[in-house]
Amino acid sequence: MKPSLPQGTRDFAPEIVYKRAYILNTIKSVFELYGFQPLETPAMENIDTLMGKYGEEGDKLIFKILNNGLDNTDKAEKTKSGFANILDGKTDKNITERALRYDLTIPFARFVAMNRGTLVFPFKRYQIQPVWRADRPQKGRYREFYQCDADVVGSDSLLYEVELAQIYATAFSKLKVPVEIHVNSRKLLTALAESCGAAEKLTSITIAIDKLDKIGLEKVKEELAGRGLDEKQIDIVEKYLSIEGSNTEKLNQLAELFAGNESAKKGLDEINFLLNHLTSNIGKSIVVDQTLARGLDYYTGIIFEVKAVGVQMGSIGGGGRYDNLTGLFGVSGVSGVGVSFGIDRIFDVIEELQLFPEEAANKCKIIFLNLGESEGEKAFELATSLREQGIAAEVYPDVTKFDKQFSYAKKKDFQYVVIIEQKELDSDTCNVKDLTNNEQQIVAMTDIVPFFQGKQDIS
Questions:
Q1: What is the pLDDT of residues 150-201, one digit of tens each?
Q2: Which residues neighbour 411 within 8 Å (Cβ) at sequence distance 6 or greater?
Q3: Which of 20, 92, 149, 454 has the most other CB atoms within 10 Å of its CB?
Q4: Which strand ranges, in their side-by-side order, compose the sheet holding 179-185?
Q5: How far apart, in whole angstroms, are the C-alpha atoms of residue 249 and residue 266?
Q6: What's the predicted TM-score (pTM) here?
Q7: Which domains, and CATH codes, for the chain?
Q8: What does residue 428 show for φ and ψ, rounded to 5 degrees?
């Protein structure tokens, strides 16, 4: 059988893992700069924990896990009806009781609900783990991918929205990725539904608006009509979506469109607070975007979405305020706000823009050739002395032809080749060849550690 991978998943070769680690370590450093602590939760959750938390569209993308040890003889009819439910997008405990996590936010809310008696609030955590979605694979969209979240629970303060915007701006600045941070408030979307006289269709409206970038305005209008909105209501939505201009101009037009609406006033106040508390440097990357909907039911306030500039890619980050989230688990009064980094898409953006620094590869740069029994023992001894000082070094494992070992060194992209033959043993020296410029240098064996310690290109 020819080996293959499940669709929408990938292997990561060493050079890719190093580059991913560069991204993750950069973002981690920013999280910890703002006082966030690490957390991990299980890959699977009880299905009741996940279902109904992501809206109609999200629920369809949850990977369900079949129960183990199902007795097909005794439960044949239940199994048959159960699979019918599963294919209908529903759940059935005769078939599945668990599912792979869809994101990191709901498991975090479950963790807070279970541990609220021991946590100190406000509680700030970051979490970097894989998630799974039964989505159609395409560029920048995978069925298994990593999320990288930062969340705060236990405070209503909008200063945390400011902090999270700063985290986005700081992290992408360190990664040298030019971005726009799009900002909206779900309260404006609520005001839109109220202005249409269709408050009960808020979710339907936001799901349709969330597809604007993908399908265009006319298709969004068709979808709204299909969801029961009449022509007058659709005209109001179109007017809302057509607002353009600077951040200030958009906010003024929104205030005029929703004059007298309390939900809109609160939403506009939130956005103005955010803009007024950011430095002018960070503020340049903020884009007020009333079309931003983020089709997840649990957002209640400010919402974010990050887009890379100059790259055809979907969002590379997103999040928002979710005041009612822990209420889903019987814990009321615990508000939260968080953001997520799309690590896989960020990787693709940095790769496309060729922004990975050379040191991101983090490769071992020194190899000792193995040119005889005594020569190999001395090579291993010297390599060990380098490793003891934190300098990575490799020794070719077998005594074989010089050309074969040298070819290996070039194919593996080593920078330095250390050659020890009989004449080097006799003189207690090493012949060090720098493959980047083809220069060779004789170094005393006793000086091999300080020699490489003095090389700025050795990490």
A1: 999 999 999 999 999 999 999 999 999 999 999 999 999 999 999 998 888 8
A2: none
A3: 149
A4: 37-38, 123-132, 144-153, 336-342, 317-321, 302-308, 179-185, 286-288
A5: 18
A6: 0.84
A7: 14-352 (3.30.930.10), 363-453 (3.40.50.800)
A8: 55, 45
